[in-house]
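ARCHIVE RECORD
Type: protein–small molecule complex
Small molecule: magnesium ion
Source of inputs: curated submission
Record status: active
Notes field left blank by submitter.
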Amino acid sequence: MKKATVRKPAAPKSPPRPTVAAEVPVVARLSPRVPPRQRAAIGGVVASPAQIRRRIHELGRQIQQDFGNREWVMVAVLSGSVLFVADLIREIEGPVKLDFVGVSSYGDGTQSGELVYTKELKLDVAGRDVLVVDDILDTGRTLSAVIGRMKALGARRVRSCVLLDKPSRRVVKQRVEYVGFRIPDWFVIGYGLDYAERYRNLPFIGVLRPEAVK
Ligand code: IMP
Ligand code: MG
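STRUCTURE (tokenized, with ligand):
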């Protein structure tokens, strides 16, 4: 007689746990190489180039593991995440494509404004796994809008990755699977992040001095 085969139920697929570096405890001192004009605007360093590099290496490994070898799409939000995504994608060995969306939430200052799409996606994400990459998660409006857009375009699974997270500022509840650094309510600049389009070129992440806000 044929033996009845008992099928084991498939293990439930749990979403990846958020990976977050320990909270940045103190704002480190500025390197003496920072030019005087920029020095006046910076209150201190949140993450040095070496700390950023190390953390991105860790994030990349984790993302690589989670996304595997099925072709997927990294969608970076312009312009703040450009430096971050350039470094992050180099840590990925699998078959990944890269695209950008332009979303402008800030006018010229530090107050969250209305969302405007300035660049649409070029690649087809239908049926694909997508990782939305942004520089910083603040109120959550930008990320939640972009994730919603990817789902509406038929993405198979959408996850998100931010270099920085300011949980105390959240207005829209938003899940994020990969976080570089969690920070308090500081306005930060450098490594792609701007204040009025300035300071994106700084190789570290610094805190903007309130006196520098006009
Ligand atoms: P959210 O939609 O409020 O989450 O804002 C996300 C966007 O606001 C980011 O992509 C940044 O462009 C900008 N932003 C939020 N906080 C900061 C900051 O501290 N420095 C620079 N840009 C920021
Ligand atoms: Mg941005």
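CURATOR ANNOTATION: The mean pLDDT is 87.
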